[in-house]
Backbone:
């Protein structure tokens, strides 16, 4: 399970019976979970869509995901100058899908070619100044919104170009899981959406309106439109695997 605020509604039910008696719940960053799944250290993970092409075999598990129909708020390129004045871009080290999406946008649609720097730790956020921009994802992006002058929301840009939602992460396994387990797992994912007010109160996060975040920005059901958006992005990735996906 990704250790970000956007997963809290799904985490809620996974910590309750009966599913909590059948799983060990591990939380980490998206990039780390993708690596763990690839190495066989976990059986199912909420991993970045951009990690899927690197799996020899994969299965989408259940009907829940992390996606956006428009503005996602927590995956953005932050800058102190307009886009055409950006000279360097730091890439969030916790990201895969977001990094791949940003590279696609810069190359195919924004027409900018800044120097790319792969961040190694949290210190990169201090470098977002002058003509240096940074891709920040997750809870830290909600914090960065209070700091940066220019905010380019990646999911909103994708939607305006393709007309489709963008799927950042899906539940994936590398082996076929029992149907009975998947049914219970799906049900557990859904429980927290009945307790959003309780979840929000317990989080005590004051930098952004979490009710708005959970009900307007983040879309959790992996419906047909989201599957189409995901397939389009996967097609791009498979054509461009020479691009480093960090």
Residues:
């Amino acid at each position: 399970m990704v250790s970000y605020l956007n997963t809290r509604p799904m985490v809620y039910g996974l910590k309750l019976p009966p599913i909590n008696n059948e799983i060990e719940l591990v939380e980490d960053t998206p990039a780390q979970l993708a690596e763990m799944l690839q190495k066989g250290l976990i059986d199912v993970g909420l991993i970045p869509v951009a990690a899927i092409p690197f799996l020899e075999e994969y299965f989408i598990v259940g009907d829940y995901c992390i996606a956006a129909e428009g503005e996602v708020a927590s995956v953005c390129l932050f800058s102190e100058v307009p886009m055409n004045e950006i000279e360097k871009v730091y890439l969030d080290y916790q990201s895969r899908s977001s990094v791949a999406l940003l590279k696609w946008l810069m190359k195919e649609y924004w027409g900018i070619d800044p120097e790319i720097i792969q961040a190694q730790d949290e210190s990169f956020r201090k470098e977002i100044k002058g003509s240096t921009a940074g891709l920040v994802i997750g809870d830290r992006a909600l914090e960065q919104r209070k700091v940066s002058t220019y905010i380019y929301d990646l999911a909103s840009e994708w939607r305006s170009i393709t007309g489709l939602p963008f799927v950042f992460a899906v539940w994936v396994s590398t082996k076929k899981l029992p149907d009975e387990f998947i049914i219970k797992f799906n049900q557990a994912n859904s429980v927290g959406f009945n307790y959003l007010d309780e979840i929000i109160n317990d989080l005590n996060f004051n930098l952004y309106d979490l009710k708005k975040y959970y009900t307007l920005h983040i879309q959790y059901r992996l419906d047909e439109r989201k599957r189409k958006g995901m397939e389009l992005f996967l097609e791009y990735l498979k054509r461009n695997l020479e691009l480093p996906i960090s």
Remarks:
- The radius of gyration is 18 Å.
- Residues 242-246 have pLDDT under 50 and may be disordered.
- DSSP finds nine helices and nine strands in the chain.
- The beta strands are 44-48, 59-68, 75-79, 88-91, 115-118, 132-137, 150-153, 166-173, 219-221.
